[in-house]
Fold this sequence. Notes:
- The structure holds 2 protein chains of 2 kinds.
- Chain A folds into 2 domains: 3-183, Thiamin diphosphate (ThDP)-binding fold, Pyr/PP domains (Rossmann fold); 197-321, Rossmann fold (3-Layer(aba) Sandwich).
- Helices cover 35% and strands 20% of the residues of chain A.
- Chain A has helices at residues 6-20, 44-48, 60-72, 91-97, 101-104, 134-138, 151-163, 212-223, 242-252, 267-279, 302-305, 309-321; strands at 3-5, 24-28, 53-55, 76-80, 114-119, 144-146, 168-173, 181-183, 197-200, 205-209, 229-233, 236-238, 255-262, 288-292.
- In chain A, the strands form 4 sheets. Chain A has a 5-stranded mixed beta sheet, with helices on both faces. Chain A has a 4-stranded mixed beta sheet with strand order 5-7-6-12.
- Chain B is of the alpha/beta class.
- Helix content of chain B is 41%, strand content 11%.
- Chain B has 10 helices and 8 strands.
- The longest helix of chain B has 26 residues, at 8-33.
- Chain B is globular and about 50 Å long.
- The N and C termini of chain B lie far apart (64 Å).
- The model of chain B has no long low-confidence stretch (mean pLDDT 95).
- Chain A binds chain B through residues 29-30, 32-34, 37, 55-62, 85-86, 88-89, 123-129, 263-264, 293-296, 298-301, 304-305, and chain B through 38-40, 68, 90-91, 94, 98-104, 117-120, 149-150, 152-155, 180-183, 187-189, 255, 310-311, 313, 315-317, 320, 326, 329-330.
Amino acid sequence: xxxxxxxxxxxxxxxxxxxxxxxxxxxxxxxxxxxxxxxxxxxxxxxxxxxxxxxxxxxxxxxxxxxxxxxxxxxxxxxxxxxxxxxxxxxxxxxxxxxxxxxxxxxxxxxxxxxxxxxxxxxxxxxxxxxxxxxxxxxxxxxxxxxxxxxxxxxxxxxxxxxxxxxxxxxxxxxxxxxxxxxxxxxxxxxxxxxxxxxxxxxxxxxxxxxxxxxxxxxxxxxxxxxxxxxxxxxxxxxxxxxxxxxxxxxxxxxxxxxxxxxxxxxxxxxxxxxxxxxxxxxxxxxxxxxxxxxxxxxxxxxxxxxxxxxxxxxxxxxxxxxx
Amino acid sequence: xxxxxxxxxxxxxxxxxxxxxxxxxxxxxxxxxxxxxxxxxxxxxxxxxxxxxxxxxxxxxxxxxxxxxxxxxxxxxxxxxxxxxxxxxxxxxxxxxxxxxxxxxxxxxxxxxxxxxxxxxxxxxxxxxxxxxxxxxxxxxxxxxxxxxxxxxxxxxxxxxxxxxxxxxxxxxxxxxxxxxxxxxxxxxxxxxxxxxxxxxxxxxxxxxxxxxxxxxxxxxxxxxxxxxxxxxxxxxxxxxxxxxxxxxxxxxxxxxxxxxxxxxxxxxxxxxxxxxxxxxxxxxxxxxxxxxxxxxxxxxxxxxxxxxxxxxxxxxxxxxxxxxxxxxx
Lengths: 324, 330
């Protein structure tokens, strides 16, 4: 089994599905001849041709809009938005068109588009190459949101996403794009959308994370075994695997959520609300959120902004020691 | 000394501005290789004449709006080298105290209203600034620089139409450096000149200028700025140029066809301009003295920036709100 990074896993998933399903097309800025700014689409144009691997003009609303039209009429487009910070020009197409097509047509049709987009901080990109906008899309009914943390999940989930009959925002953690390596099966396999993974079992507290911050959380809980933390990688943010979350918190009685996006109205807030609704009698401490700051993303202070392992560890100690 | 429509001191200013940009950006590249500048950066090597030609023609209170490839425009307006290099290095002495970095240089005191890293975002903004100038009767002109790739995004067309309908004192300058990031602009654009060939759609004159000739750029700049200041409305100018470096720091630009870089290097704007000045009777020694002075200034700014600390954690939540902080939120 080859050991790949996330970029290689994504590339392979696209290749596997394009070979299997002639309806799959890839489009975006520099995705063809250049192979993508992070090289996730490298080599696809050589194998599948310029009709299925499309170099577009620089126009995100156009890219997503065209993908919607393709999907409405039988194709399975996988547009790439070069950085998730560049998704906002296409926000109208995503929120007002893509997400609503099935509902507004009374179920007559949908647009099975998978928007791939590298997300999150960690490359010293500053304000417009670092944001993690998952909450905006979770807040939009009609979208599935996937945010894997490792190559194995990235490939299996991307294959599921392309085969899904509803649209997906597929966020790729660029901080660990190359750093997160692991065994990835060759050929076809899928990971179901909506299933979290228990990374590490424990009884002392539940720690929930996704994307690049999963690795920070893993480092933190590994440093202090007496926390006896159970670490959950959500993998799919929406639909949320609420059973996995509730099951774990019911067992541990304490819960921390790690999120690199700004704190206020982030997905951690929604998870916290769901946990207190369903686990209230079992909770032994306030639910902890360990998040980015409520500020734009700062260039020089990137490592202070992100909830990295030391900050996570500090908060988890507090959570462990909390007594009502 | 040969004389024409451009006087001696203006020519020296054009030369100096180009040299400042070139030498500072070369230094920025070195600092990247030394890992003193992190992340990415987008250089204007080979495109200096556009920034210099316009900036020298501008009034100090005119506005500059530019892109993530904005070191050149920021410097050309007179922003200090220490502030620019410091920002690139994420130091306290940086123009924004290290919070922005290379792609977001802003210096309101020098009329640099920001470098925008979302393609097309600043074109409507520049139109709005021009509306403000018009309403206030200030006589200010708004200059908006962007790349060829921008001409295919919706905001370009929205802003051009605004400007034309409202006859705004704004000048849109497309720096056509031939590449939309890593893709040849011609392969993704319906017309040969992505900006100029669209001018007719907004009732504007089709203007293409040699962007590697600082005099040619300066003349077009004067003409369009005078027109805008005089109430004659907007202009759309396409400056033909070439970036001799990659799209960004990490890009070796292997996608260039063989010979293309060499052809454009022969038309290097600074070499061309230097030769012209000598032809016009400027002294070699005078130019050399200017080169040395600029190099010294770059060296001093480098040392100053290196000596400046990184920003402390306490500033992370400053300037979110008008009171300077974010008191109730964090």
